Structures are given as structure tokens and as C-alpha cells.
Amino acid sequence: MKRLFALFIALICINGVVFSQKKSAGQVKTVVIDAGHGGAKPGAIGHQSKEKNLTLSMALKLGKVIEDNYPDVKIIYTRTTDADITLAERARIANRAKADLFLSIHCNSWANSTPTGVETYVMGLSQSKANMEVAKKENADILLEKDYKDNSEYQGFDPNSPESYVMFAMYQNAYLDKSLDFAGYIQEQYKSAIKTINRGVKQAEIFVLYKTAMPAVLTEVGFISNPEEERYMMSDEGQATIVASIFKAFVKYKSTTEGVKAPTNLKIDLKGYNSGKKEVKKEEPKPVKPAEPAEAPKEAAPEIPSAMVVSTAQTGVEPPLPIAEPELPKSVTEPLPPASEEDEFQSATPQKETAAASSNGVVYKVQFLSSDKKLKEGSREFKGLKDYEYYIQNGAYRYTTGSFRNVRDASTYQKEIRALGFSDAFVVAFIGDRRITLQQAKEMENR
Asked: Which strands form 101-108's sheet, in the order they lie side by side?
């Protein structure tokens, strides 16, 4: 119980840091690029390479391409060499710089060579056992840090303890909208450039995303445990294509966030990029039956603690393949600034009896869907959900459901909506017809 209380206090402190460092929206001037793992933390180990080396190579290439095209954008790397940087320090680097965007580059892995694909994570609650295992794997670097149990930055967090993940359940991500935007753009670019499984945008309890006070994503650029994808990530062409995809996603994110036209003459000076042929693409993987659990590569054993090795024997599942390509997030609204005077809020269908506003006028709802056009009543996108409203912001229709006097009840309802298939549903707050931030709502409740 004492441990849970300590985690709760830590959560309050972290939220205070997040909102105190919130910068004015609309500018992307400082970007932190995080090459996953490093030093004594090799990350996943393939047949011919180590994750820490691949991620560093791609991180440095990405930073150079951004600088070539945006000389006014400041690029900060969490590491530029094979250095051992703690997860807490990676977040501190970004927070100290008051960065506008945080990107962490990683390679995925599994206990056998079957899984393939690319996926991108934002901070949130895992919707599957496989997502949780990815979070544990990425958080497991903490276990390699000296005296991590005594490090106040972690407040007793243990990547292998279910109890430790309680603090994530209480966390409200002020930057979720923008993080989802960037993650969606990345997956969109992967889909058009890399012929592999598009695993989509996901949410998981990843510590480094939890600690950063800005829009933040972690992208898994392929499975190092799959020999074909490992070779691709090691090749000049593969790295160039991956880096170019992330860069193009950044271009779209920056131009959309700043409300300006994206540059047309992009300079992508990368060895292997569009060289010789029109982008050599890998064959589309055919669905296969899950393979029997396999032991992790023998060469990984001396360097990686057991906590970092994910096995099907432990989880009972393979990383899930999407039944269909996931709907990528539309351009969603800035989470913090109130709606502009041009924005409007309308009811698509009358709600059933809903809770009255709280004493300060705040109403909490669950936003579950965004669309660039108004959807007809009964559209399949609603998945049978009939009680909803919508508001218009930044030219997009934002659909909400429910009406609650406190954020706790709204969060409970959020889980029900996610269970219907809206995995990215999140809580929003309103005063009348105007959307406000959760932090603004909290401040009003405390008055």
C-alpha cells in the first residue's frame, strides 16, 4: 500500500512537470531524437547485428536529413555514440531542452523468426498482452542500470511488476492528440514505402514516453529477430527508406502543426535512397501459423537479462497481425488550447439522459473518432454506437460519447468504448460547447 501511495505522489509530481513545461502550440523548433539502448544495454540481438547499433545509425541519419531541410530546427540527440544513457536521463534531456517533439527509434524482436512488420507507439494503456510485452521489453533497460532501485527518478518502478504499472493507469496524457498525429503519419509513410506488415499505431506503458513533457512516440522499425528484416535494416537501402519515411512524416507533422505549406523540394541525401531502382520492396509476407516457442538466440544470453527476453511461452501469444489495415488517426485537434471562435459544437443525435455539469460547469466526454467529413447516422464507422455528439475543430469532425461530472467516471467509460473497438479513445473536457484541456478542467475543480 505504501508503494502504491508513493507511485501516486510521483504521478502528481510528473503531471505538474508536464503542464508547467507546456509550450505554446504551433511551433516545431526543437526535436529530440533518441537512439534506443546503447553501451551496456544492447537491446535486441539478431543473427548479425545489435539493436543499439542499428538505431544509432538511423537516428544520426534522420537528424542530418532534418537539418539539411530545416536549418532553423534544433536537433538534439540523446546519444551520438555507443553510450549508456538511462531512460530517465533520455526524458530529462528532452524536458530540459523544452523540446517540441520526441522520437525514440527501436527495433522489434520476438523469440522466433516468424513475426515481421513496423509499428509505432504512443503513451497509453496496453490493449493486448503483446503490447504489454513490448512495453516490458523497452522498459527493461532500467534493470541494467546500477542501483536503479535507489534512483528517485523511478520511484520504485519495476518493469516486471504489474503493481508498478498502476501509475500509468492514473496518467492523463496532455499530448496524446499530437502524439497520435505524428505516429499516424509515420505508419502512413511506412505503408507506402516498405512492403511489410503494417502493425499500426498502438498504445503501451513505455516509461520514456511517460516521462517526456511533449508529443512523443516510439517507433519499431522492423523485427531484428527476422533474418530478412534484419538484413533490410542493416542495408543502406533499408535504412535510407526507413529514415526517409520518418522524415516525410516529420515534414507533414511540422507543416500541419504550424499551419504552413510543406516544402516540395525535399533534400534526402542518403546512401541507398532510390538508387538504381524505384524502391526495392520486400515481398508481402504470407500469413503463417504461429510457430512453436523458440529459445532466444544463444549469443543474446550473456548480455541480455531474462527480463528482456520475450517468449511465447511467457505470453501465450504472438504479436498480433492486423486483420485489416488500421484506420490511421486523422489530423486531430491540439489538446491544450481552447477551441477558436470559428469552431463549433453540434449534436449529431440526442444523448440519452446524461449527467449534469459539475458545479464549475465542466463536463467530461470520451472522444472516440475523428473524420475529415461528417458521417451519416448509422455509418459503419460508429460500430453500432448510437449515442454520440460531434464538434468541429481544425476542419475535422470529432465524435464524442458520454457525459460525466468527473474524470474518473469518464475514464471508466473510456474502457468500455475501447472494448467496442475504438482503441485510441480518450477523455476530453468541455465548458458548455467549448473544449478545454484536462489540466484546465482540473484547475477549475480546485478553485
From this structure: 74-77, 30-35, 101-108, 216-223, 118-123, 198-204
Confidence of residue 203 (pLDDT cuts 50, 70, 90): confident
Q: Determine which helix (DSSP H) or strand (DSSP E) holds 129, and give its type and residue range.
A: helix 129-139
Give CA 41 to chain center in angstroms.
Answer: 22
DSSP annotation of 17 reads H
Instruction: Please tell me the distance from the alpha carbon of residue 76 to that of residue 73, in angstroms, as a whole number.
Output: 10
Q: pLDDT of 338-392, one tens digit each? A: 333 333 333 333 333 344 455 568 899 999 998 888 898 888 889 888 889 998 8
Whether the CB-CB separation of 103 and 181 falls below 8 Å is answered with no
Q: Is 198 helix (H, G, I), strand (E, B) or coil?
A: strand
Cβ contacts of 256 within 8 Å, gap of 6 or more: 181, 331
d(CA 123, CA 201): 11
Q: What's the CA gap between 381 and 205, in Å, rounded?
A: 27
Contact 393, 343 (CB under 8 A): yes
For residues 380 and 371, give the distance between their C-alpha atoms in angstroms, rounded to a whole number.
13
Please say whether the dihedral angle defined by the alpha carbons of residues 64, 65, 71 and 76, taken in this order, is positive or negative: negative
- Name the helix (H) or strand (E) containing 130: helix 129-139
Whether 104 has a pLDDT exceeding 80, the answer reads: yes
Confidence class of residue 151 from pLDDT cuts 50, 70 and 90? Answer: low
Distance CA 141, CA 104 (A): 14
Query: Is 181 buried (19+), middle (13-18) or exposed (0-12) by CB count in 10 A?
Result: buried
Distance between first and last Cα of the chain = 30
Q: Return the number of other C-beta atoms located less than 10 Å from residue 405's C-beta.
A: 18
d(CA 129, CA 312): 11
For residue 273, give the nearest of 52, 108, 65, 46 by alpha carbon. Answer: 65
Sign of CA dihedral 62, 135, 188, 257: negative
- 199 three-class SS: strand
The secondary structure of 19-67 as a DSSP string is HHTPPPTT---EEEEEE--BTTB--SB-SS-BHHHHHHHHHHHHHHHHH
Integer Cα distance of 415 and 401 in angstroms? 12
Secondary structure class of 239 (helix, strand, coil) = helix
Which residue bears the cell 459544437? 345
How many angstroms separate the CA atoms of 345 and 403, rounded?
14
